[in-house]
Design brief:
With 255 residues, this protein is α+β, with helices and mostly antiparallel strands. Helices cover 47% and strands 20% of the residues.
């Protein structure tokens, strides 16, 4: 019988998943490298790699292992099952072009924000918002927009588990202040990020809701603080995203 981790999971499964995540970070690695980095016996690493190889989740190239494309299939299945995803993708592309900035669609997963899709406009700057990246919800406009429209008990559970991690000096880490900001976001219908996740970067986020008002995710537009300021960040971009989200929600309602 398999031993179990302190969290109640199967310990051998945790080791296997650790190997997958390490390969995602390293791109390619051999048994020895994985053994050293994960502090696992080589025999254990090799056995897990063999299982992953047999099931086509990793590729063995002369003793160097990399993740296989079966992971892409699983991720695509999960993404495509998000309500309205295909229409959301079209509208994110549209926003990137009309604003000239970077636009993205983010969902909450296990208390974190996950970038599901992003598009870049002609003036977009590079950020760390790669598809699949996980970020603190409290530090990004889309994350705050999502939290503002969640049931309070769910938000309390997330804050209890994840907390309010700081990314910059501007990140809101005081619980009382954060709850006040969420109330303002709910009243306005959109959230701001004033260099709270990355210095020099600002953003506006708007939640996407199901007809029953359950949160699907949020769409945001981000750009450098010298361009996202004044009327542009206070009115123009919020109104553009709100218009797009209204179309998305109507499409979901009547699809």
């Amino acid at each position: 019988m398999s031993s179990r981790s302190n969290g109640g999971g199967i310990r051998s499964d945790v080791k296997l998943l650790s190997i997958i995540e390490e390969l995602a970070e390293l791109h390619r690695a051999g048994v020895t490298t994985l053994s050293d980095r994960l502090d696992m016996p080589k025999s254990t690493v090799h056995a897990h790699l063999q299982t992953l190889h047999d099931e086509e989740y990793v590729v063995n190239e002369d003793g160097q292992y990399r993740l296989g494309l079966k992971h892409l299939y699983l991720g695509t299945v999960v993404r495509d099952r998000i309500p309205g995803y295909r229409f959301i993708k079209e509208k994110v592309d549209e926003l990137a072009q009309t604003t000239g900035e970077r636009a993205q669609f983010i969902v909450e997963d296990h208390g974190h924000g996950v970038y599901v899709y992003r598009a870049v406009g002609p003036n977009a700057v590079e950020t760390d918002s790669g598809t699949g990246n996980r970020v603190p919800l409290n530090a990004i406009s889309a994350g705050k927009a999502i939290l503002a429209f969640m049931p309070r008990e769910r938000v309390e559970a997330i804050l209890s588990d994840v907390g309010l991690p700081d990314r910059t000096d501007n990140t809101i880490t005081d619980a009382d202040e954060f709850w006040r900001v969420l109330e303002e976001i709910r009243a306005d219908g959109y959230a701001h990020n004033y260099e709270e996740s990355t210095a020099g970067l600002r953003a506006v986020g708007v939640p996407v809701l199901k007809p029953d008002e359950e949160v699907i995710g949020a769409i945001s537009v981000s750009g450098p603080s010298n361009r996202l300021r004044g009327e542009r960040i206070e009115q123009e971009i919020p109104n553009e995203i709100l218009g797009v989200v209204n179309e998305i929600e109507l499409n979901i309602r009547f699809s």
